[in-house]
Prior knowledge:
The structure is a single chain. The protein has 237 residues and is mainly α. Helix content is 60%, strand content 0%. The radius of gyration is 20 Å and the shape is elongated. The model is unreliable at 1-44 (pLDDT under 50).
Amino acid sequence: MGPGEAGGRRRAGGALGPHQSERRSDPVGTPDGSGPDAAEEDPRKRPRRRGDALNAAIFEAVLAELKETGYARLTMERVAERARTGKASLYRRWPNRARLVMEAVYHVVPRYMDAPDTGSLRGDLLELFRGVALLLEGPTGEAMRGVLGEVLHDPEVAEQIRSASRGESLAQIRRVADRAVARGEVRAEALTPRRLEAGHAVMRHHFLFQGTPITDRVIEEVVDEVVLPLFTAPPPG
């Protein structure tokens, strides 16, 4: 399959060309009436939400703050105001903003990284990493930069982030790899953890040092020059 057969390419500026397949749109936004000014009303008039409903409102507020002001200016107070809840509600759930931001990222990951079954390993990988590119180009990328800075300077935060990790990236590419094994495209014993991690590692490296947008050409190079050769190589040892 040629490079242009799995959804077309994006231009360097991120706009779709005339023959491109449309990438999944970014659903992250600010809910109506959820801006910081909303908290100036009588607290007794705030919506009474608990559990998943409250968490979802908080996560969407975090993503909106990341998009609007960036990680450096994000505070628990501003998130609480935007989510129309009390700051104490945040601190009961998350000890600091790094943990809160990571939870918000996990909240949005399934919107992008649930790669459809295209019928081939290459097609599945292209769709998966297009979703990764969208994540990195939005609030999640801003979160990664900010949390990385805190992790490098605060061992306690680093340990909290490690302990809260859910392994979403590895789980998503494992699902893609398992489909390829079922089709007979690759051998299960060839799919070591290091090989499974390689594609995401290259994408993150490109994002941190080259920035965005991450074009389809870059995605195809990651798939064709890194992931596919590793997956189809003989098992180690």
